[in-house]
Amino acid sequence: MTVPGLAAESPDGFGRMYRRSLSDEPTVPSITTVIAQQPLDLDGWRSYMAAKHVADHPELREALESPARIRQLVRTAVDASHEYARTAARRGDRVHSFAEQLALKALGRANRLEEAREELRINGEEAFGATVESWWESFGVEPIAPEQTVWNTSVGYAGTLDLVARINGRICLVDYKTKGTTRDGRVKPPDDKVAMQLVAGMKAEESLVDAAAGAWEPWQYGEDPLLIAVAIGETEYAAVRVNPEVRKFHWATFCRLRRVWAARVEASAAGRTLLPLPPPPPATPRQPGPADETRPTD
């Protein structure tokens, strides 16, 4: 089950970090923080969302005659693109919570499934919950551990897997991705980077037993699980699996990105990157010496 207290945002701006227990300080970056060291260009998406906001604005025609009003619309458009991202993140949290509660109910454990369903309904997102249930039933999911927190000491990272389950007799590590819908009503597929996220989860060394006590046990499901990403949309789901032949390459990349993160932390600890540079002091006029007195003249 989700243990928010184990993860916290770094006050130094180094992303999300994990602690070994609720009483410890965070010591290692999260899986997603490590992956975020890889450049990801969102400028195109943000520009599109900002331009769309302006184009759809009801006051656009009137604003065309006022440069000041146009500038105001541009500022609100930038804010709108950021708000869209925040809204999508909150929606993803609600869908993930619903999926977690669904697994807890299937395990016969305490759950708040109906509350999670109601939260989706209040926000007009019931279709996402229905899609989760459709995938669940179609694949005959047998949950083992929802929201399983894992740790790797050798490389130095931690993370939380959306679901460990058995499907058709095979151990599976599952990651949900809430996605939008294309114009033809199809859910957008997961991005390739989800493979690195799942491989890092697979390579864990320990799994959480008790957050308050800081109790962990050897990771039991990393031998050769099926790595599955499920895109959850309003109209349908799209399930994909990570090609076993590419796992080693994603793992190698992840380990390099972990070193990049460590280098950033070390560089920050060394001090400021850019220091002020004043101009050099004025040159001191040279005093004439004996050599000047004996120098031949014209």
TrEMBL record:
It comes from the Bacteria. InterPro entries: Restrct_endonuc-II-like. Residues 276-288 have a biased composition (Pro residues). Residues 272-298 are annotated as: Disordered. SUPFAM superfamilies: Restriction endonuclease-like. This is Cytochrome. It comes from Sinomonas terricola. The lineage of its organism: Bacteria, Bacillati, Actinomycetota, Actinomycetes, Micrococcales.
